[in-house]
């Protein structure tokens, strides 16, 4: 089964999970494509989480891994923000695609 933002984030956080259970939990969640839904899914694994709105200049203050919502897509930022940023794009068309880009490429409006 293809990875999704939830299982990708669990993996980045080094949380033990079973793919079948986590994918089923994700697929059956009515708000799986929202930050609210993702927060509820993380709570089911007892992972503290909070949604924040930050300015472009402060994104490098976040400690990876974290999930960012950009436009209509989620990205899981795995490594630090900068020249060697590693992200995993979780959109309907490019799910699981790994990208490497700089901060100004992440902050596309």
Your description of this structure?
The chain is α+β, with helices and mostly antiparallel strands and 109 residues long. It has four helices and four strands. It has helices spanning 5-12, 19-28, 35-44, 103-106; strands spanning 66-70, 73-77, 85-90, 97-101. Strands 1-2-3-4 form a four-stranded antiparallel β-sheet. β1 and β2 (73-77) form a beta hairpin. The longest helix is centred in the first third of the chain and has 10 residues, at 19-28. It is globular and about 40 Å long. 19% of the residues are buried.
Give a nutshell description of this structure.
With about 110 residues, the protein is of the alpha+beta class.
Strand segment count: 4
Q: Treating each run of at least 4 consecutive H or I residues as one helix, how many helices?
A: 4
Give the % helix.
Answer: 25-40%
Q: Tell me, what's the shape? A: globular
User: Order of SSEs, N→C?
Assistant: HHHEEEEH
Regions with little confidence, pLDDT below 50 for 5+ residues: 102-109
Distance between the termini: 31 Å
Characterize the biggest β-sheet. Answer: 4 strands, antiparallel
Percentage of residues in strands: 15-25%
Mean pLDDT: 77
Radius of gyration: 13 Å
Helix/strand structural class: alpha+beta
> Oligomeric status of the shown chains?
single chain
Order of strands across the widest beta sheet?
Answer: 1-2-3-4
């Amino acid at each position: 089964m293809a990875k999704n933002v939830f299982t990708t984030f669990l993996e980045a956080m080094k949380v033990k999970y079973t793919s079948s259970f986590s994918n089923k939990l994700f697929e059956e969640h009515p708000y799986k494509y929202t930050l609210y839904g993702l927060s509820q899914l993380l709570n089911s694994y007892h992972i503290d989480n909070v949604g924040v709105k930050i300015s472009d200049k402060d994104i490098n203050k976040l400690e990876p891994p974290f999930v960012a919502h950009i436009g209509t897509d989620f990205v899981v930022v795995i490594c630090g923000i900068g020249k060697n940023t590693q992200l995993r794009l979780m959109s309907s068309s490019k799910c699981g695609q790994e990208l490497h880009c700089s901060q100004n490429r992440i902050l596309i409006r």
